Amino acid sequence: SSLDSYNILGLDTNIDTHFWFHVLPYITENDAFMARLKNRLVDKQCDAIMVSSIWDGVGSALLPALISNFKVWNVNFVALAVLPSKVQSSDVHFNAFSSMGICASKDFTPVVLVDRDHLESYVGVNRKGSVIRGNIVINYILELLLAKETFVQELSELSRSFDVKMYTVLSATGASLKIYGSLENMLNTALFRPLLTFDLSSASLLYVLLRMPLQFKDKLSRGKVELAIANWFKERASLKSIYISEPIYVEEVSDRIDVVMFVGGFVVTKMFTSIEKKVSAIKSQVIKKGLMKEDEWEAIVKSLVAD
Predict the structure, then answer these.
(1) DSSP state for residue 18 in the 8-state scheme
(2) Residue 51's pLDDT is what?
(3) Are 256 and 231 within 8 A, CB to CB?
């Protein structure tokens, strides 16, 4: 409701939108749509954040399409992709798997994976101490990311440097320093509320964003935070790099801190192999009907599942 109607775009199409392969060609070949989108970008805009559920045809097609176009437009880009619930049917997992496979085959655009089941069950607090649940958590994290103007640039550079494309989030929001006593205790709580099931020990990269009261600027300086987080991770993962972004300081009397950790480089083979098996029957049906070629599917699988 806060968006100006001028900035709301529709595909304006009567094509089928159930599967990604119905929508992707329409988007990529639709010069008028891309021109309208490009014209909406703020003058000299160099960064973009996209949030998409990738189980429907439109969301699963838009993600790889925009990754390609933003690259051409020299726009740094970070995507938050919400994966379907385990109880959803195989067709939506087929869309999500395909979308991620196409994205993974492209250049180094960071994609942050969020599992719908984890998101729906997430319970946290905001800076006022009020409970936040489900999709509100994504809104809260987005608000934090938008407050950090260099976020997209920093995460994109880290991804390119280490050839890492996929991340997920560990967060501790609205954590009172008086109650928790230390940053390390706050980080411990983040382990109980992941937004994806993954093997933390296999992770190789970490990007950390904090928001805290200005009164903590000396007590929890960037340097002190870096050492505390490095010490906390040393027995949990052999990280190649830890990047602590300059904290966002706010003038308020509260002692609550937001910590959002983007963990990347973890092994995804097991997760995507499981999804590949789940969608095997629908994949075969799609190929048999000529809606997709076998080599297209093999390329998607290759980019997600290691040999």
Answers:
(1) S
(2) 94
(3) no
pLDDT digits (tens, 9 = 90+) for 85-139: 999 999 999 999 999 999 988 766 899 999 999 999 999 999 999 999 999 999 9
pLDDT of the residue at 95: 97
Residue 242 has pLDDT above 90, yes or no: yes
Does residue 112 contact residue 301 with C-beta atoms inside 8 Å? no
Would you say how long the chain is, in residues? 307
Distance CA 257, CA 201 (A): 25
Nearest to 196 by CA among 281, 117, 250: 117
Contacts of residue 179, Cβ cutoff 8 Å, sequence gap at least 6: none
278 vs 217: CA distance, rounded Å = 49
Task: Produce one character per residue of 196-206: b if its CB has 16 or more CB atoms within 10 Å, e if not.
Answer: bebeeeebbbb
- Cα distances from 287 to residues 32, 90, 119, 186, 275, in angstroms, run 30, 15, 33, 49, 17
- HSE-CB at 45 with a 13 A cutoff on CA atoms is 15
The pTM of the whole model exceeds 0.90: yes
CA distances from 202 to 154, 233, 236, 238, 296 (A): 22, 12, 9, 8, 29
Quick check: 184 and 235 in contact, CB under 8 A?
A: no
Could you please report the per-residue DSSP string of 178-234?
Answer: HHH-SHHHHHHHHTTS-SS---GGG--EEEEEEEEEGGGTTTT-HHHHHHHHHHHHT
CA dist., res. 110 & res. 62, Å (int)? 15
What is the CA 172 to chain-centroid distance, rounded? 17
Separation between Cα atoms, residue 191 and residue 235, nearest integer Å: 14
Q: Is 264 left (phi over 0), alpha (psi -120 to 50) or beta?
A: beta
